[in-house]
Amino acid sequence: MRKKIVAGNWKMNKTFDEAQALVSEVVNMVQDEVNNDTEVVICPSFPFLSSVSKAINGNAKIQVGAQNCHQNESGAYTGEVSAGMLKSVGVSYVILGHSERRQYFQEDNQLLEAKVKAVLKQGLKPIFCIGESLEEREQDLTFKVLESQLKEGLFHVSNEEFAQVVIAYEPIWAIGTGKTATSQQAQEVHAFIREQIARNYDAQAAADTTILYGGSANPGNAKELFSQPDIDGGLIGGASLKSRDFVDIIKSF
Ligand code: PEP
To answer: Which residue lies with its CA nearest to atom 1 of ligand 1?
Structure first.
């Protein structure tokens, strides 16, 4: 059975004190209010991973994720952070291939292939992001783009490794824009992704893979999105910066 996950991507937001305040609010609210079996993943920026991990204090419902990592294990890569370093401070998930990384840091499918390998090698779980631009959607290229992002960046891993992977469908036109994909649009794409998994791995792998939706999800639309048969949760940007909104999204299952 696949897991339900709600992951908060804090991006480059919050100071140390703000991050500490937010994580403790989320931890307390999850403890007091969340009765469902959703796994919560909090993805702060690198400097706060260790303290956020400590604040979670082994709460089984909440995990820590990083927003990126380098593809090499160690060495002269000034300013970079390896998967092994992330693991050593309590991280269990790593977001890879976010559209902002693809767009502003020229991360392509080939580089992402190497990052996926590096993350899996450390026993961490990639949250592999894919998504089309508005232009690509309008030109009817959505499925083609997603297929090549999956094939080139992700589908090289073994069946066993693939069992550790979470996929996030994030239409670029919906990220941070307030424009959410309709639940039908998202469901259609999630079903397509599951079909691709079945084709490249097998039906069991397709049924077991958690596929998240991301793009302006909020407490007002999460219930409808999460009620779709192939949507297993969300990757939440803006709304994860407010504890009340984030926890209300977690409670939307
Ligand atoms: C994201 O960046 O992963 C995201 C989904 O952002 P937002 O929720 O703000 O659209």
So the answer is: 237
